[in-house]
Amino acid sequence: MSTSLLYHGFGIRGYRYVGTEYRQGAVVFRIEQASETCCCSACGSTNVAPRGQVDRSLRALPIGGKPVTVCLAIPRVLCRDCGVIRQTPVALADPRRTYTKAFEHYALQLSQYMTIQDVARHLDISWDVIKDMQKRRLQRRFAKPKLKHLRQIAIDEISYAKGHRYLTIVLDLESGAVVHVGDGKGGEALKPFWKRLRSSGAKIEAVAMDMSPAYIDAVLSYLPKATIVFDRFHVMKLFNDKLSDLRRDLHREVVDKMGLVQTWVTGRDEFGTA
Length: 274
Ligand SMILES: [Zn+2]
Fold this sequence. Notes:
The protein is α/β, with parallel strands linked by helices.
């Protein structure tokens, strides 16, 4: 084993190979970071003084069928620029993970061809760990969909918790994909979307939505060039609401007049009220 095999075979870079142990059928590599490459994980300064170390064990790519663990001592340093003691950054694994990035990549590749159970058994790791990797991959892929291609969008609100809470949804009308989910209803819920939209450089041609003044205001100020389209359902609903109001007003007017006549004739109107 050598430092160069560590890099080419295991994707571990910036560390020195120290030694290998064999523990109950597993291979354990010990590696260390050269003190001259230590820096502050917050500001990147190399103006640091050593303050001990923290041991961390990470699952790495297996050799044959044998599980491999990498043990590394992460130096703790006092950053003279920040004035704070921190662990130096670890490039081969994400913070709080118990495996290397290469291990995660391999597990995710396998899970395209095998069940989670099979991958877990093959890598000798818990089912939950694989499930968690898949969940995070889905979040990375779908939490923030690319907006550059957007042309026609629809904005609508949906209520949940028995109508007490709202979500504002933005749809790509061409693909039907949800591209934004905002908390609440109205202009506020769209603000993070406008920010992402602006940096994506997308050119929105048309926006379909209901006739809520908050959405209209928001679209007029953020997408002044886009055509606003009110969908037929909302137009019909508004029309019917107006029609009902008119019918109610007319009815009231007639009843009032009739009431006057009835009261004059019998002392009571047609609804029995005096
Ligand atoms: Zn610093």
